[in-house]
Design a protein that fits this description.
By secondary structure, this protein is of the alpha/beta class. Helix content is 41%, strand content 16%. Helix 1 (20-33) packs across helix 16, helix 6 packs across helix 7 and helix 9 (254-264) crosses helix 14.
């Protein structure tokens, strides 16, 4: 097989922060090991220059302008210095989300990404173009190429109109346009990829997309530092939650905090002390929420810590806390870090993808995120050592690299074959029309 040249367009790529960046960092590494030549087209994050190096094209984008960023977009999360507070980080205001379809990056990044994409395609023959969301407008880059595009994979890391985390568009015309863009992307792509089974099933059943599910996973070669705080106290049951407690997916941590309050007050002289450590930044006022809960040092917010330290913190915990919403397709990148940590998981999840995966892999206990009594029972099981004694994970290979990259390689080959066959059909149609004339 001759070497395949793959171009991946994704807004989120390291050093952009967040678990969304890690999917394609790992995918690219393992696809290259399998012999694919992979180039990444992405946005230069604030504080980093545009340019090309090591197969990564970083373009400018308006979000990197400090003045525009203060008004329009999220505050910078790329600092390596831990942040003491939890919140005060801004998201794009609702008027920005509600004005542009499908998202504000249509105006802030695509004007930079489009000429960079055209230039990359002109410089080298590309066998397969992969567009990956979020952000959804990234897929429009491939759509705009029309018939001149190479084989195309549309990688849906979130639902688009399915269980959207975006604000609802106020006008019926905007909503209709959003649905039409989603339909065109899902059906025009040679292969659509859903990062969870519910997302893939929706694309297939509702839109008729040719779709395969390819989950996120954990790279076993990623660097892991020692935990940033001491967890050596034998009289303490240390629960760890990495990432935001609050978020756009409507997670509700209040039942968890109430359950902690109940369990922490039980058997004060005999039981291990219960403590929850929260590591990560948030775009919401988590600090105020925790202060209002009045739990004192039973819940400690560490603020931002680098990913390698967060992974170390996960491995040192008594148990890991996963907080999810009611969305059926929710299975964040943090889940796969938890699977690799080798510690039991307390998953506040109900009939969603995260619940299915944890049950399938026997990596923890799943409880209703709104049921304080059930959450408290899970916390007691962690405190008393029951979760650790019963921890017996299985079938983790599917969620560990290189398995997801092997699946993506198969999708690339399928997309190329479908494009080849569609090209043959187009040539036949042109020939028949010419003969008829």
């Amino acid at each position: 097989m001759s070497q395949r040249h793959v171009l991946v367009a994704t807004y989120y790529y390291p050093p952009q922060p967040g678990s969304g960046s890690n999917r394609w960092l790992a995918m690219v590494k393992y696809l290259r090991r399998m012999g694919y030549a992979v180039t990444v087209l992405t946005a230069a994050p604030p504080g980093h220059p545009a340019g090309t190096s090591h197969g990564v094209i970083r373009t400018g984008n308006l979000n990197s302008n400090p003045a525009i960023r203060r008004v329009l977009m999220r505050a910078d999360r790329t600092s390596k210095t831990p942040v003491a507070g939890a919140g005060s980080h801004r998201v794009a205001p609702s008027w920005a989300w509600k004005g542009l379809v499908p998202d504000p990056w249509l105006a802030t990044w695509l004007p930079y990404a489009w000429p960079a994409l055209r230039s990359a395609l002109a410089q080298r023959a590309v066998d397969c173009l992969i567009t990956s969301s979020p952000i959804e407008s990234t897929h429009l880059l491939a759509l705009a190429l029309g018939r001149s595009r190479p084989a195309w994979i549309a990688d849906f890391r979130d639902g688009w109109c399915f269980e959207p985390i975006r604000p609802r568009f106020p006008l019926a015309g905007q909503r209709a346009l959003d649905r039409e863009l989603e339909r065109r992307v899902a059906t025009k792509a040679d292969v659509a990829v859903g990062v969870t089974v519910p997302i893939a099933d929706d694309l297939r059943s509702r839109l008729g997309a040719r779709v395969v599910p390819i989950a996120n996973g954990f790279d076993p070669e990623v660097a892991v530092d020692s935990a940033p705080v001491s967890l050596s106290a034998t009289d303490r049951c240390t629960l760890v939650h990495t990432g935001a407690l609050l978020g756009a997916s409507a997670r509700d941590p209040r039942p968890l905090l109430e359950a902690i309050r109940r369990v922490a007050g039980e058997l004060p002289g005999t039981a291990r002390r219960l403590q929850l450590l929260v590591a990560g930044q948030s775009d919401h006022d988590e600090r105020g929420l925790l202060d209002q809960a009045g739990l004192g040092d039973t819940v400690v917010h560490l603020g931002y810590i680098p990913r390698a330290q967060a992974l170390g913190l996960q491995r040192a915990a008594t148990a890991l806390v996963l907080l999810t919403s009611d969305a059926s397709g929710e299975a964040t990148g943090k889940l796969y870090e938890y699977l690799a940590a080798g510690r039991p998981i307390i998953a506040l999840a109900k009939r969603n993808e995260a619940a299915r995966i944890i049950t399938e892999t026997a990596t923890g206990v799943v409880v209703d995120p709104h049921d304080v009594n059930a959450i408290a029972a899970a916390l007691r099981a962690a405190r008393d050592g029951e979760l650790e004694r019963s921890y017996a994970p299985r079938s983790l290979e599917a969620y560990t690299y290189p398995a997801p990259a092997i699946q993506m390689a198969a999708a690339i080959e399928t997309a190329m074959e479908r494009r080849r066959l569609s090209g043959q059909m187009l040539n036949c149609r042109v020939t028949r029309e010419g003969s008829a004339r």
